[in-house]
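dude i think i finally got it to work??
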Amino acid sequence: MAEQFLKNHDLEVSSRPTLLGQQRLSCNGLDIRFSPYNEYWREIRKISAIHLFSLKRVSSFSSKQHSLSFDLTYNHIKAVVMDLFLVGTSTGAATVIWAMAELVKNPRTMNKAQADGRNWCGKKGFVEEDDIHKLSYLNAVIKNKFRTHPVGPLLYQEKQLKLLLQRVTRFKTRHWCYRICLGLSISVANVEIILANLLYKFDWEMPTGMKNEDIDTEMSPGLTQHKKNPLYLVAKNYE
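look at this
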């Protein structure tokens, strides 16, 4: 099924439905997340990739305007900036909470992830960005979290889903579609450094009277799939 959605028929499901709420949030679909899959989306995504998410971004956004195939307006910029603020904070926080919930429910996995960081970083007091690539077990935990609790819900239209379901023949997960998050690498890096330090600096327990089994996995509705019920944990400094 994944291969059908994300490779064979990705162009057919790369657009977005036109819903009142998201149109208001995105200045009538001028952002990256909610824009229909068309020439405008490809152009604004390219601009964002070069000028906002590239290490070689230029010093001024205005220098790009002369090569656009559309007239750049205040609403275009506002819609894209909204994406940066909302996606960069909400999804990252939700990802860390889901990861901590799963780790607390699985103490053996939690212990191995903590040992991974503490063995590599010793007593230096903080996991730094240069240490992250060494933490292979933690990276595996994060990848598994993306698989079990994706924070970005699918926004395909009903007719697109019906079309694909009629053509589904097998399940593979090797490819990504065109609408993959543009800032994925930045978001993953943020989650890695936050989660690594939470596991490195603290031991985590359930509050008195609660058990690991009490942690539920119910999601709240919305643009980001947050955990519906708050996650309560007790942090103790690791020595």
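Residues 121 and 127 are 7 Å apart (CA to CA).
im so relieved honestly
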